Amino acid sequence: MELPQVGKNCNLENCNSLDFLPITCPFCQKTFCGEHRLPLNHNCSQWNRVDKQLIQCVTCSNLIKAPEQPNLSPKEALEEHLKSNCKIHLYALPDTINFDRNCSVQGCSSVDPHIGRIYCEGCGQDYCLKHRHPSTHNCECLFADEKRKLERKLAAQEKMAKTLKLPDSSTRQKIIKPIPAKSKKGSIVELMKMRTQAKGDSSIPPASRMYLYVQCPKTSNMGSLSVFFDKKSSIGRMLDALANMCNITNRNNMISATDPERLYLYKCPEMTIIDNSMMLEKAVKNLDTLLLERQGDVTSSEE
């Protein structure tokens, strides 16, 4: 998936690669990728005006400046720099000496002056390279995504409550009980946790598994299930397996398509019937909520 609005292209003519963390050369003020960020790597047009006491370390690729006291040659300064594991005699640009390195994460002051702060669109704060991802600074957008997800699930349960023919209030509560959120830090964490809890055929390779939430029929003594199936399987085959998991009788192979006792899988919150001939990977996606119900217990319009 291309994201042309993120990052910039390297200004080196024979590179032009898109870099999500572009670096501006302090001498020529052009933007380059990480590989060509240093003056010697992009044939900087302003390099001739720079102090000739600078030399580039081949190990860490940083610029090294020989100190005035003691008086060392660039080569001697480079040797001491290498002996210190690339920690001393680093060249500091004039405009970065007093640079504010504080990150928006409390206690962190690791903002690299050569890269600058990285803006997070989720919370509107600036961070260092280490804390730039939402998950590393507990970004409020993670909780907003989880809130929207929970709202969608509740909306699905509300629509199910309006379309299902429920005999009494106790049964109604059993059917429309929301499936609890598995995580508070986004769908990736939720999926990771679901993998340890979901029921399914252990012989299915992990890479081929599709993880789903399923609401059992109102006649079942089961509430909701976390399950996984082979994404290459058909919806009809999954329906048969779910009927067994929900402990209900499945007579689909003996009754007509219009029989009230026929079982169907409904996709929530749309409450649309899923074609039994479709493959899972074409019909649903990970963490979707499905309803298994008999046709006679679902009305075609909201009450």
UniProtKB/TrEMBL annotation:
Residue ranges the record marks as coiled coil: none
A UniProt-annotated Pfam family: zf-AN1
Record domain AN1-type: where: 4-52, 97-147
Single Gene Ontology MF annotation: zinc ion binding
Keywords: Metal-binding, Zinc, Zinc-finger
A GO cellular-component term linked to this record: cytoplasm
SUPFAM superfamilies: AN1-like Zinc finger
Name of this protein: AN1-type domain-containing protein
Protein species of origin: Rhizopus oryzae
